[in-house]
Amino acid sequence: MRRGFTLVELIIVVIIIGVLGSIAVPQYVAGVERSRAGKARTVMMIISKAEKMRAADNNGAYIACAASANLQANLGSYTEMTDIAADIDWDYSVGIGGGNFTVTATKRAGLANAGETITLSDGGVWGGTFAP
After folding, report:
1. Is 45 helix (H, G, I), strand (E, B) or coil?
2. What is the domain count for the chain?
3. How far apart are the C-alpha atoms of 48 and 11, rounded to whole Å?
4. 69/18 Cα distance (integer angstroms)
5. Contacts 24+ apart (CB under 8 A), 75-79
6. Of 73, 101, 98, whose CA–CA distance to 85 is shortest?
7. Is 2 within a domain?
8. Rounded-to-integer distance, Cα 55 and Cα 49, Å
9. Whole-angstrom Cα distance, residue 31 to residue 37?
10. Do residues 94 and 45 make contact, with C-beta atoms less than 8 angstroms apart?
11. Looking at the domain assignment, is residue 73 inside a domain?
C-alpha cells in the first residue's frame, strides 16, 4: 500500500499554485487601485457640490483650496471634510480660473501611480492622468 505523495507530485502542485498566484496577485492589485480611484471620484463629487453651495452663498465666487487641509477650513461648513482631509491615498485641491473651478486628486508620494491625477471640472467633465 502506497502512502503520501511523490516528490514529482508535490513539485507539480507547487508549480500550479505559483502560476495561479502570478495571475491572481496583479489582478488583485489592479482591483484595489480601481476601488481607491472610485473613492477619490466620490470625494471629488462631494467637494464639487460643497464648492457650488459655497458659491451660492457668496455671489457666485469660488474659493481655491491648495491642499486637503484647506478644504475643511474653506468648505467644511457645507459638508463633512474630516475624512477627506485625512485620506491616506489622495491629496485633494481646488483650482480657480476664468470663473470656473477644477477639483484635482493627486496620488500621494510613495504609493503606486504616485503623482498621477484625476480632475473634475465644475461642468462635470472628468480628466487627469490616472489609469490603474
Report:
1. helix
2. 1
3. 56
4. 44
5. 75/47, 75/50, 75/51, 78/49, 78/50, 78/53, 78/54, 79/46, 79/47, 79/49, 79/50, 79/53
6. 73
7. no
8. 10
9. 10
10. no
11. yes
Which residues fall within 8 angstroms of residue 46, CB to CB, at 6 or more apart?
Answer: 79, 84
Longest CA span, the chain: 89
Can you give the residue range of the structural domain that contains 66? 7-128
At 101, is the secondary structure helix, strand, or coil? strand
Look at residue 19 and tell me if it is in a domain. Answer: yes
C-alpha cell at 84: 477627506
Please list the pLDDT of the chain residue by residue as tens digits (132 residues): 678 889 999 999 999 999 999 999 999 989 999 999 999 999 999 999 999 999 999 999 999 998 887 888 888 888 888 788 788 999 999 999 988 999 999 999 988 888 999 999 999 999 999 886
